[in-house]
Design brief:
Layout lengths: L1 H8 L3 H27 L8 H22 L6 H27 L1
Helix pairs in contact: 1-2, 2-3, 3-4
Length: 103
């Protein structure tokens, strides 16, 4: 909701800072929480793979962000070449993590 409100009423700095904060917190939750509950034994240890998937999608987002910002970590061609494999690995990690919870 914070992103929607700041995008609707503010331009530039405030909306970008809000977007960064919300994405940072949610990314840490998607990465850290599944690993934490898997290690603590609250869920099967395999659920930690969901956190690995979160880390991979975060890596993809960072690659795209830096490419868009004009400071790519890799060349644009290289990023676009590895992106499908990165998305496939992300999906595989999410699916494997959730499948292992149901067992």
């Amino acid at each position: 909701m914070a992103i929607v409100l700041t995008r609707a009423f503010y331009r530039g700095g405030v909306s970008n800072i809000t977007l960064t904060i919300v994405h940072g917190i949610s990314g840490l939750v998607i990465f850290g929480l599944p690993i934490w509950v898997g290690v603590k034994g609250i869920t099967p240890a395999g659920f930690s793979l969901v956190g690995v998937g979160g880390a991979l999608i975060g890596l993809g987002g960072l690659l795209l962000f830096f490419m868009r910002a004009g400071n790519p970590l890799l060349s644009k061609q290289h990023i676009l070449r590895i992106f499908p494999a990165l998305l496939l690995l992300t999906t595989a990690a999410f699916v494997a993590g959730f499948v292992l919870v149901k067992r």
